[in-house]
Design brief:
19% strand; 43% helix; 4 helices; 160 residues; five-stranded mixed β-barrel
């Protein structure tokens, strides 16, 4: 196997390490993947046999996986991962209200589409306005609709 010059192999190795470090700050996976490929090329170009190169790449990947798993456990590195997690929660004091209403009572009821349902919109059911969706069919304004399914807060209607 023909090898690259020592300077080029060292440069590839350094570029691979830099890309892996950048992956920590710019998440997305692309920089990390390119970094691992660059390190693999550097390893393959610096060894004499293909089998030894594959073995060293396997050890490299195993080491990265171990360091990654260990970084979740060690208190010194836990602060890095804490920056990625959301610490706030929505409370009623701040104005958040979860839908407590059960829409099951509207199942089978008839109403009027107040706007074009494409496929979502608003319909009136005996003075009660609801956000509704159709089965995928467009419904014109003023058409009569019937509630055919209720899935949590999702009210599904069909034109009648």
């Amino acid at each position: 196997m023909e090898t690259l010059g020592t300077g080029l192999v060292a440069t590839l190795f350094v570029i691979g390490i830099v890309l892996l470090i950048l992956e920590i700050f710019v998440p997305g996976g692309i920089l990390g993947l390119i970094g691992i490929i660059t390190l693999s090329i550097a390893i393959m170009q610096s060894v004499d046999s293909f089998a030894l190169g594959l073995f060293l790449i396997f050890l490299l990947l195993l080491s990265f996986a171990g360091l990654f798993a260990l970084s979740f456990r060690l208190p010194q590195t836990r602060f890095i991962w804490d920056r990625f997690s959301l610490k706030t929660c929505q409370t009623q004091e701040e104005g958040y209200t979860a839908p407590l209403r059960s829409y099951e009572i509207f199942l089978g009821k008839h109403g009027i589409a107040l706007c074009q349902l494409r496929p979502a919109g608003t319909a009136d059911f005996s003075g009660e306005r609801l956000d509704v969706v159709t089965e995928g069919v467009f419904v014109t304004t003023g058409s009569r609709v019937k509630v055919i399914a209720v899935e949590g807060t999702r009210v599904v209607v069909r034109q009648i």
